[in-house]
Amino acid sequence: MQIPEEGTSPERYRVLHRNITVLMLLITIIPLALMASINYHQYQTALKDEIMTPLGALVNKTKHSFELFLAGRLSTVKFIASAYSYAHLADEKNLNRIFRGLKQEIKGFVDIGLIDANGVQVSYVGPYELKGKNYAEQSWFQQVKVNGTYVSDVFMGYRKFPHIVMAVQHVNDTGEVWIVRVTLDTARFDDLIASMGLDRQSDAFLVNRSGVLQTNSKFYGNVLDACPLEIPPRSFEPNVVEENDPRGRAIMLAYAYFSSPDFILMVVKPQAEVLKAWYTLKSELVLLFVVSVVVIVLVVFKLTNVLVNRMRESDTRRELAYREMQHSHKLSSIGRLAAGVAHEINNPMAVVNEKAGLIKDLIEFTPNFPDKQKFLVLVQAIIQAVERCRTITHRLLGFARRMDVEIELLDINQIVKETAGFLEKEAMYRNIRLRLHLADNLSRIESDRGQLQQIFLNILNNAFAAVSDGGMVSIATFDKDIDTVGITFHDDGCGMSDEVLKHMFEPFFTTKKGQGTGLGLSITYGIVKKLGGDIEIKSKEGQGTRFTVYLPKKAAEESRT
Q1: Which of these CATH numbers, 3.60.15.10, 3.40.50.300, 3.30.565.10, 3.30.70.120, describes 406-561?
Q2: In what order do the strands lie in the sheet with 544-552?
Q3: What are the backbone dihedrals phi and psi of residue 197, each rounded to the nearest 5 degrees, phi first?
Q4: Are 95 and 81 in contact (CB under 8 A)?
Q5: How far is it, in rounded angstroms, from Cα 462 to Cα 456?
Q6: Distance between CA atoms of 279 and 284, rounded to whole angstroms?
Q7: What pLDDT digit, counting tens, does each position of 465-521 carry?
Q8: What does the alpha-carbon distance between residue 99 and residue 111 come to, in Å, rounded to a whole number?
Q9: pTM of whole model > 0.70?
C-alpha cells in the first residue's frame, strides 16, 4: 500500500509503521529461518551417521563372531572325519572317547554319529537311540552328498530344545565315503547376542532367509516363530534402515547376512532412544528459534514504534514551526499595521487634544461666555475621548513591539492590566465579570513584554470561550517563592475532562470544532518553557478551569538569545 503524502495523517503513520515492521521482520527472520533449517538438516544427517556407523559396526562384529563360532565347530567336525578311519569311527568305544574329548575341550556338542554312504547311522554317541537310523531320504543328507558339508537351521525335533546339526562328508584314498554328523545346542547364540551389550529398549536376534526366528526375541517372538519384520534386501555388508515395526514404533534396523549358513543377524533400536540426543537438541533448537523470533518481533515492534513516533514528533514539530512562523508573520504584519495606525491616529488626536485645550482655556478666560458650564463639560468629554484613544494606541504599540524580543525589568501587574484591557469591551458586552486580584509589592521580573502579553491573551481568550454570558473570569498574581512569581487565571466555565487535559498542550488539538487551530495553548506552552517557566492546569467538567503560570524572576539564558 502506498504511503499517504499528507503531513501528519494518522493513516500515513499506520501504513509507514506496517511497512517498516514487515520489512524489518523479513530481513531478520528469513535469514534466521534459513540458517536454522540448514543447521537442522546438516546436524540431523551428521548425527544419524554418527549413530548408524557404530550400530553397523556392532552388527558386523557380532556377525563375524557367529561365523567364527560356526566355522570353528565345522572345522572340528571336518578334522574328526579326516583324522580317523571309517573302522575306527564305527567302533562306538572309539567314538565315545572322541565325543568325551570334544565335550571337554569344546562346549556345545550334544551328540555325534557316523553315517555310511547309504545314509545308515553306523555308530552313535548321545542321549538318544539313533543307531541304525536311515537318513538317505532326508534333504540334509542329499545336500551333504553334493556340497561336502551341511549346517542346518535351528530346529526342535524330538529333542525339544533348539539345536543345529552339522554334517561333514569324507572320502578316503580308496574312495570309501562316510559322514560325521553332530548336534550343537544354541546356547552360545544367546551368549553372543548378550555380549553386544544392548539396552532394554533394543533387541537382537537371528532369522533364516525364510523369516523364521533362530533365537528368542524380546519383542517379536520366540525361536522358530515367524518374524513379523520384513526381511531386508540381501547384503553381506552391514546396513541400517529406518522403518516402523508391527507395534507402530519407529525403529532403526541394522542387519547383516551370513555367508554361511543362511542366517541374518538383526538389531532393532527404537528411534526415540537412538535419537534421544537429537530430539533434545531439536527441541532446544526449536525453542531457541521461537524465542529468537519472539524477541525479534518485540524488538522490531518497539524500534518501529520509536522510529515512527519520532518521525511523527518531527513532522509535528516541523508543522508547528511552520504554523508558528506563519502566525509570527501574521502578527508581525498586524504589529506593523497597528504601529502605523497608532502613529497616524496619534497625530490628529494630538491636534484635537491641543485644540480642545485651547477651546477650554478660551471658555474659562472669557467672561460672561454663554452656556459656559455646558461647553466646558463638552470640551472635557472631548479631552477624555482623546485620552482613551491615546491608551488604545499605546496598547497597539505595545503589541507592535512584541516582534522585537527584548528582555527588560517588568511589572507583571501592569502587563496583566494592559492585556485585560483588550477584553474589557467583550466582557461588558457579554456581562462577564473580569476581576483582578493583583498582589501589592509584587516582585518585578526579567522577561519579554510582548511574549508575556501573548501568553496572557491566549489564556484569557480560552477562558472567555469557556464561560457563558454572565460568567466570571479572575486573574491573581502572587510571589510563589524567592525566585518565582505566579499568575493564576480562573474561570467558572464548562471545564475539561481528564482525557482532554492529557492532550491540552498538544499541537493541533482543539475542542473548538471548526473554529480553533489547536495552536494557541501549544504556542503558549512553548513560550512559557522558553522563558524558563512552567504552566499548570486544574479543571473539572462543569466546575471551571484554573491556569497557573510560573515565571522566573531572572530571565533564562535561552530566552535572551
Answers
A1: 3.30.565.10
A2: 433-437, 472-479, 484-491, 544-552, 534-540
A3: 65, 40
A4: no
A5: 10
A6: 8
A7: 888 888 899 999 999 888 899 999 999 888 887 777 776 666 555 555 545 545 567
A8: 7
A9: no
